[in-house]
Amino acid sequence: MGEFSDRVALITGTSQGLGQFLAQQYLAAGARVFGCAVVPDETLRHERYRFAQLDVTDEKAVAAWVQGAARQAGRIDILVNNAGVASMNHSLLMPAETAKRLLLVNTLGTFLASRECAKIMQRARFGRIVNFSSVAVPLRLEGEAMYAAAKAANEEFTRVFAREVAAFGITCNAVGPSPIPTDLIRNVPKDRIDALVGRMAIKRLGSKEDLWPVISFLTSEEAGYITGQVIYLGGVG
Amino acid sequence: MTREEMQAMVKEVLREIVEAQSVELPPEGITGELPLIGSRSSLDSMAFVMLTAGIEQRLSERLNVAVTIVNDKAMSMRHSPFRTVDTLADYVLELLREAGQTAAGA
After folding, report:
1. CATH number of A8-232
2. A49 an active-site residue?
3. Which of A8, A55, B71, B74 is the most buried (most CB within 10 A)?
């Protein structure tokens, strides 16, 4: 077993992409993993993996998911708020419903899962929460105004929440991935991606594997003195 | 769950927090009238968080029901349901009734 043996990790958005990759990494490292997504998870099967279909913006559903995991596993050590949606569109062409969805899934979803997990984590005086920002925030990416706004909100939530839960032994940090070839950026034109990569210190797209070192580090037991921080990948920021 | 059982549960959670956090109580100890919020409360914000989280945990474990105690409804009520041990117990009972109704209706 690996470095997360006997740890209990909750990850949102595990039906595909990064979330599913992270679930696999935690499973391989020995953790017990509870995943969720708004669509069914047809692919990941493991004896230490439980999946629930739910919308992270549904307060009651999130509370039931978190409390159910705590009931089954006895505790929650790690939360990775991976679930997110992106929409690339000039602000003058963005419908209100799309903007609302960006804010709700990316930011309200992060808040709800963090709140519910911290309630459980505070009993054990231990918790590791990682939220998702994006390089869209420091790069001020045109066409992603509301996406970047939602991720910037996540950053500030991370900083303040970290202070609110520090006394409970819970850390809360954020990672800002560079574009990774997943469904989230499938529809972004190639020239936009190339321009973006050109502004990064490391001039290539990220990979899922690039993300694991920082997430596993921030959620490790040893990282207990690091909280309220935002780490960007690819040399951005 | 009866009113008396809920009041006993709230007091039980509170007792654990008082011991763990060395909370200073008035001489009469944990009574139904013990203020939980406001200037007369013995609880700081940490202890209050632990109290509501502790009650949610017990409801989850004993009744297998997920409720969020500090919710929009509680914040918009004219008289806060968190005034005293007894008002909190009554409010949680109300939430349980609502949760039951929701389940029955689903």
Report:
1. 3.40.50.720
2. no
3. A8
